[in-house]
Please model this.
Amino acid sequence: MQTHYPVIIVGGGQSGLSMSYCLKEKAIEHLIFEKHTIAHAWKEKRWDTFCLVTPNWQCQLPGYPYNGVDPHGFMQKDAIVDYVKSYAASFDPPIREGVEVLKVRQHDDRFELTTSIGVFTADQVVIAAGSYHLPKIPSLRERFPDTIQQLHASEYRNPQSLPNHVLVIGTGQSGCQIAEDLHLAGKTVHLSVGSAPRTPRRYRGKDVVDWLDQMGYYDLSIDDHPQKETVRSKANHYVTGRDGGREIDLRHFALEGMHLYGRLKTVNGTTIEFETNLKQNLDRADAVSESIKKTIDTFIEKNQIEASIEPSYHPVWEPVEESGMLDCQNIEAIIWCTGYRSDFRWIEVPVFDGKGYPGHERGVTPIWGFYFLGLPWLYTWGSGRFSGIARDAQYLADYIAARKRVSQDSAWSVVNEFLLGS
Model:
C-alpha cells in the first residue's frame, strides 16, 4: 500500500474536493482523507428544511458552477448534498472515506499523518477540515432540570421530533431559522435574542446578495476589510432562503405569538433569567439592516442606476415591558443555537496562536508546505462558502506547484553537485 504522497488533503468536504480538483488540473499526485463520507455534514448536521441563504448562482465550486434552472433560488438540504456529491463524481477525486486523521506532525523533511488505517507521509499537507468541529454549549446547561430535553442546533431535525413548548437560545442564522421552523409548525416558541445582526433579503428590486456582488464586496480581502481584526469572529447576519427567500424580522414573529427575551443570563432553581436587553438587540439588528440599505443607496446614486424606491422601515412591534423571567415548567425542550468551536488539537505543527487559530497568509502558514483551506474569511467573505472556495483553492494549488518545482530543482541540484564532484 502506498503510504507517501506529494500532497495529502485532510477533509473531503467542498474545500477538500475543490483543492483536489485544482491539484488534478496540475497533475499533482495527492490523496484526500475524509473522516465520514462526502457531504456528510450537509446531510447529517442540518435540519430537514435547511436551505442556503445565498442564491444558487453563488455556488461556484472550481470547474462546477451551478447550472440549474433556478439561479436566483436557494438550494434545499437534499439538493445541496446532491450538488456536492455530483461535483465529486464529475472528476473522481482520490479520496478515502471513513478514515480519521488522528495526528499530524512534522517529521524530518516531510509531514507524518497518523490515521485510523495507518501512518502516511507527505511533502505538503492541506488542512481542509473547516472550523466547526465541536458544538459550543455553555456550562449553564447543567442547571436546567433533567425533565427538559436539550439539544444543539446540529442535532435538530424537524418540529415533529420535539414537544410543544421550546426555548431556542441564540439568534444567529441557525437560531432564527430553527425558531421560524418551529413557529410555522405551530409550536410555542420562546426565543432568547442575542446580538447577531440582520440583513434585508431584497432591496430596491434585487436580492441584497446581487447588490453586494455588484459593489465588489465579495472580492474584498480580509486585509482590506474595515473590521479585519474582528470580522472572523462575528456572527453572520440572519436571513433565510426559505420559500424563495425572505428577510427575518423577529418583530413579526412576536406579532404572531412568538415569545422574545433578551440574552440568557442564568438559571435559578426553576426560573430562567434573561438580560433586559431585548429592545437593544432588536434595535441593533435593525440598525445593521438599515446601514446595508444606505450603502446600497449610495452605490445606486453614485453610479446613476435606475432602481425602484422603497419606503422607510418602521418597527412593527416593540417590547412594552421586557420579561426577564421564564418558569422552567413552561419549557419542554431547549435548542442551543450557540455555534461551534474549532478543535485542532490533533495537529502538532506549531502554527497556532493563543486562541487556537492558525497563523496564515491566504491559507499559507509559516511552516513550509503546510496550508489551511475553507476557514471563514481565510481571504474573503466567500472563503468558507461555495462562492469563494475556488479562488482560494487555485491560489494554494499554484503555491503547492511552485514549491514542488523548487523541491525538485533543489534535488537535481544536489544530484548534479554529486556527479560533478565525482
